Amino acid sequence: MHILIVEDEKKTAAYLQKGLSEQGFVVDICFDGEEGLLLATTLEYDLIILDVMVPLRDGWSVLKEIRNSGQLTPVLFLTARDTIDDRVKGLELGADDYLIKPFAFVELLARIRSILRRGPTRQAEQLQLADLSLDQIRHKAFRNGQTLDLTPKEFTLLMLFMNRPAEVLSRTLIAEQVWDVHFESDTNIIDVAIRRLRQKIDDPFPQKLLHTVRGVGYVLEER
C-alpha cells in the first residue's frame, strides 16, 4: 500500500513515515500543498494523509482540487484544526476521515486500515433514506419534502447517521464523532441530543427512522 503524507511539521512527518513504514506501507512525504497536489494528481496512492495548515496551498484547497480532478483516492485529514465546523468542512469537501492532533498512532493506524478496507469512495452530496434527505453541501435536511429546522449540532448528528445507514452507532462513537469528547457513563448528553433530533425528524411523521438498540446505541434505518 502506497501512502502520501502532506505535512509541514518535519518531526511529525518523520514520525509518521517511520511508524507506517514499520507497518509495511510505502510512504512518500512532502511539506507543502503545491507539491502535495502535484503528487496526488500525477501518482497513484492508496491513501493521502493531509494536514490543513500547510504552506503554499492549504489542505482544504488541495482536497478540493483532488476531487475536482475526479480522483477518488481516500483522504484522511490529520490536523490541529479541531472545531466541529472544521470537521464538517473537511467531510463536505470529500475527506474520508478527520483525526485531530495530538493523536495516538494506534488510532491513526486503525483509521487507515478502516478506510483501506472500504476502498476509494467519494462522499455523496445528497443522502437519502426513505423520505428523509440531507444535502451535505448546503447544510439542509428535508422530510417528506418539508425543510427540517436543525441546529448545527443536530445537522452534524444526522449527517453521521445518514452516512452510516442501518449501522448501530454506540454512544461512545457518537460522542467522539460529533462532540469530539470521550463518552462518560454518567452523562446523558447523547440521549438528550437524540431525543431532540427525533422530535424533528420522526415525531411529525408516521414512519419512524431513528431507533434505539437497547444497551448498544442507535440506528437510522427503515423498518
From TrEMBL:
<dbReference type="GO" id="GO:0000156">
    <property type="term" value="F:phosphorelay response regulator activity"/>
</dbReference>
<dbReference type="GO" id="GO:0032993">
    <property type="term" value="C:protein-DNA complex"/>
</dbReference>
<dbReference type="InterPro" id="IPR039420">
    <property type="entry name" value="WalR-like"/>
</dbReference>
<dbReference type="Pfam" id="PF00486">
    <property type="entry name" value="Trans_reg_C"/>
</dbReference>
<keyword id="KW-0238">DNA-binding</keyword>
<dbReference type="InterPro" id="IPR006291">
    <property type="entry name" value="CusR-like"/>
</dbReference>
<feature type="domain" description="OmpR/PhoB-type">
    <location>
        <begin position="124"/>
        <end position="222"/>
    </location>
</feature>
<dbReference type="GO" id="GO:0005829">
    <property type="term" value="C:cytosol"/>
</dbReference>
<dbReference type="Pfam" id="PF00072">
    <property type="entry name" value="Response_reg"/>
</dbReference>
<keyword id="KW-0902">Two-component regulatory system</keyword>
<keyword id="KW-0597">Phosphoprotein</keyword>
<dbReference type="InterPro" id="IPR001789">
    <property type="entry name" value="Sig_transdc_resp-reg_receiver"/>
</dbReference>
<feature type="DNA-binding region" description="OmpR/PhoB-type">
    <location>
        <begin position="124"/>
        <end position="222"/>
    </location>
</feature>
<dbReference type="GO" id="GO:0000976">
    <property type="term" value="F:transcription cis-regulatory region binding"/>
</dbReference>
<keyword id="KW-0805">Transcription regulation</keyword>
<keyword id="KW-0804">Transcription</keyword>
<dbReference type="InterPro" id="IPR001867">
    <property type="entry name" value="OmpR/PhoB-type_DNA-bd"/>
</dbReference>
<feature type="modified residue" description="4-aspartylphosphate">
    <location>
        <position position="51"/>
    </location>
</feature>
<protein>
    <submittedName>
        <fullName>Heavy metal response regulator transcription factor</fullName>
    </submittedName>
</protein>
<dbReference type="GO" id="GO:0006355">
    <property type="term" value="P:regulation of DNA-templated transcription"/>
</dbReference>
<dbReference type="InterPro" id="IPR011006">
    <property type="entry name" value="CheY-like_superfamily"/>
</dbReference>
<dbReference type="InterPro" id="IPR036388">
    <property type="entry name" value="WH-like_DNA-bd_sf"/>
</dbReference>
<feature type="domain" description="Response regulatory">
    <location>
        <begin position="2"/>
        <end position="116"/>
    </location>
</feature>
